[in-house]
Amino acid sequence: MRTIKMKAFIFLLVSAGFSIQLWAVDQNHESKSYRIIESGGQWQLLRDGKPFYIKGAVGWVHFDVLKDCGGNAVRTRASRRNLDRAWEYGLVAMAGLPVRGERNGMDWGDQYMVGEQKRRVLEMVDQFKDHRAVMFWAVGNELDWIPPGRPYHPELWNRLNDLALEIKKIDPHHPVLTVVGTGRFETKIRQITENCTDFDLLGINTYGDIGKVAQLASKHWPKPFVIAEWGPTGHWQAPRSSWRVPVEQTSTEKAQVIFSRYANTILPNRDRCLGSFVFLWAQKQETTHTWYGMFYDGLRTESVDVMQYLWSGSWPSNRVPAVLNLRILGFSDKDIILGPDETYQAHVVCYDSDYDALSFKWDIRPEVEIPANSYAGGLEKPAEPIPGLIEAGQGPRMDFTSPQTEGPYRLFVQITDGRGHAGYANLPFYVKSR
Fold it and tell me: Which residues form the domain of 326?
């Protein structure tokens, strides 16, 4: 009778599915332990007593590519699914905890709200503290930023420090940090240094100002840091047209600045910087649908090639097409004013070092409207291509008809090589009656 009951129990476990199996795996293997040490002014992260340098990305897809490129970590939200997927591909995670900021309705002066949030966060820490994918706990992201730039609550840093202290009581094996952006950075970093004494390290999101920010962090923050998010020049840092829209770099220009920022800032700061997470190992809408993503319609861009080389020391055997320049013939600067319903010609300068046959996809889209209170593209709606302006089948030189309606637009081109790779560029222009 006991044998029959045991067989029935095993059958129920198997029938319950994959999540039960993963739970069992976690319980039967020890989680990894991380700690940060300092010796002679040199900071180092240790994983089970061995040095561990973070080669990471922010993202939620293509974990297999990340691992194959030499990456070892991902910055993602703390959830069973995300942590299991990271560990499935041999990656560890800077696990983001659900700490709301004032831009999402949090009031740091409300004791009840603060207490309820702390309870939820600590429950999550207790749930996942033994998961082998956990490396760090990230207590919020840029909680000081309240669009369109309002001042943050004076209790913010004290509240976050209290939360970090409680997390470490539950889980002493995984360092705790918060992540900040670079707005009012020098003042902010001094406040954090004074009030966040229980954080083990600091996470910094930085783009075009990465060199200056690394210097300030080393000067004012007494502990180590990670570059928690970095990549191409931010849309708020880019040159602008006369109608105030930012001019985006080509995929090759982005790859070049990513190479430079890693080689000239991140690696030279290894005495204080424990590693980094490049942004974004996916694709998203923020200003445009191409600005930050290192993948385009699921295809690798040149920035992925660059990170493979920086992480592993080897370039991929087949390279992404390079995109050097895009222009509308007859215009030489960033202020391109076109007449309505007129014919123009565009030309993209590109090449493929492997001599793969290239295909070109062109489209014209209205400029995306960005709400004043939008944060990280969250309230933006991607623009759809306008039909009928471009004939199919055109190559690197293309004829198009400008839209009839006055306003701001962008011309996009995607170049693919048939090998899973894509390069791209876009140009803003304005349609105005002469």
Answer: 322-431
Token representation of residue 33: 């332990």
86-114 per-position pLDDT tens digit:
999 999 999 999 999 999 999 999 999 99
1 within a domain of the structure (yes/no): no
CA distance 292 to 257: 13
Residue type at position 433: S
Q: Please indicate, yes or no, whether residues 263 and 340 belong to a single structural domain of this protein.
A: no
Q: How far apart are the first and last CA of the chain?
A: 91
Token couple for 422 = 């894509």
Amino acid, res. 265? T
Mean pLDDT score, 184-195: 95
Please state the three-class secondary structure of the chain as a single string: CHHHHHHHHHHHHHHCCHHHHHHHHHHCCCCCCEEEEEECCEEEEEECCEECCEEEEEECCCHHHHHHCCCCEEEEECCHHHHHHHHHCCCEEEEEECCCCHHHCCCCCCHHHHHHHHHHHHHHHHHHCCCCCEEEEEEEECCCCECCCECCCCCHHHHHHHHHHHHHHHCCCCCEEEEECCCCHHHHHHHHHHHCCCCCCEEEECCCCHHHHHHHHHHHCCCCEEEEEECCCCCCCCCECCCCCECCCCHHHHHHHHHHHHHHHHHHHCCCEEEEEEEEECCCCECECCCCCCEECCEECHHHHHHHHHHHCCCCCCCCCEEEEEEECCCCCCCCEECCCCEEEEEEEEECCCCCCCEEEEEEEECCCCCCCCCCCCCCCCCCCCCCCECCCCCCEEEEECCCCCEEEEEEEEEECCCCEEEEEEEEEEECCC
Residues 184 and 227 in one domain: yes
**pTM, whole model, 2 decimals?**
0.91
